[in-house]
Amino acid sequence: MSRILLGVSGGIAAYKAAELLRRLKESGDQAEGHDVTVVPTEAALRFVGAPTWEALSGHPVSTDVFTEVDSVRHVSLGRRADLVIVAPATADLLARAAAGRADDLLTGCLLTATCPVIFAPAMHTEMWRHPATQHNVSTLRHRGAVVVDPASGRLTGADSGPGRLPEPEELATIARTVLAGPAIAAAAARRDLAGLRIVISAGGTHEPLDPVRFIGNASSGRMGWALARAAVLRGADVALVAANVTLPDPAGTEVRTATTTRELEEQVGKAADGADIVVMAAAPADFRPASEQPSKIKKSSSADADQGLELSLVQNPDILAGLVRARTDQRQVLVGFAAETADTPEQLISLGRDKLARKGCDLLVLNAVGHGRVFGRADSEIRIIGGSADESETPPALAGSKELLAHHILDAALQVRSER
Fold it and tell me: Alpha-carbon Rg of the chain, whole angstroms?
């Protein structure tokens, strides 16, 4: 069980931290989730009271260093934490943390923590954009802290813009991912993808048969969403082309939508122009009906219950191969996905190498699908082929949450780009 210290500073978004606490307590590989201790500021308690934090966390709550002096809590809490996440982190809290202040329990804990530290800022747009705040954010990142860019949306009152606290589910996902892969915190703090434009496709296309039916697949878009969150966390400018995905938009991304494979091809093609990395994580349909019926196809009125329906299908465009042909910047990295029904790892790799040669992309992410694997699940197992890897070697299997695997995929793409 991981020990998480949840810091809460005095902003209206403090109410969201209660939901974040619940998600952290109920998440993790262990059924019991994580052990979470809440350390609010005095101002935070004016928004959400101590009884709420104590009831949800199962731990006593205090804000100053004079409570339980014998246990030296400002040292012990920071030392024993596996992760610290401050949500919301107000402009004042960021300033005090950047200056190394220790005038309450939370800032004291921040100075003694040796584990990864995540700040989730929330404030009005003008405060977020102010040079002082940006300087403080830069200072914290330089010291190795992960500072999550705020979402855009409704703020206090009628105001709207960047400065909104990301949703608790998204913050809990980031926390779990950093716990699972400590190196991710370092990459996020360095912003190693800053300055790069990354295009990611996600979901599965629908090819209409008639006004109410379509040919599709079981892709949920979770892998593409995980890639988008990972790229934003590491500083990239991200465009996400979504095909029939019902998940909430990841914070900090430009989302474009498509329904059919041909629409996906058009949207990805436009977004890929000038992109540094393109990841085709979507599952486009290989075929579509030769014609769409203008009205709903009815069952036959014949007494023959075995009478079926014949469909004529035509092949859809190969989006990934088209991106390879259209590439003009040879530094652009193209990453494809191959979902195969392979019985053995050797068969999966053989199918993948054949597809990599046909498509001409730089990297191919291999999934063995079927029998409840991959589609719609939070975890997966992948193998990455291509790049400078020796083709005689068997690429290792990488298993874990899709959020963790997303960082592995981005690491591989960044490695290919660095070699050009």
Answer: 24
| Annotated binding-site residue? 317 | yes
Q: Where are the domains of the chain?
A: 3-190, 197-287+314-418
What tokens were used for 409?
């995929």
Q: Kindly state the helix (H) or strand (E) to which residue 215 belongs, with its residue range.
A: strand 214-215
| 319 has binding-site annotation | yes
H helix count then E strand count, the chain: 14, 19
Whether 359 has a binding-site annotation, put simply, is yes
What does the chain come to in residues? 420
CB 298 within 8 A of CB 213: no
Instruction: Tell me if the domain spanning 3-190 has CATH number 3.40.50.1950.
Output: yes
Q: Is the pTM above the cut of 0.85?
A: yes
Task: Please report the pLDDT score of residue 390 as a whole number.
Answer: 62
Active-site annotation holder among 136, 217, 244, 367: 217
Within a 13 Å sphere around the CA of 263, how many CA atoms are in the beta-carbon half? 16
Classify domain 197-287+314-418 at the CATH superfamily level. CoaB-like (3.40.50.10300)
User: Is 136 an active-site residue?
Assistant: no
pLDDT over 80 at 400, yes or no: yes
- Do domains 3-190 and 197-287+314-418 share one topology? The answer is yes
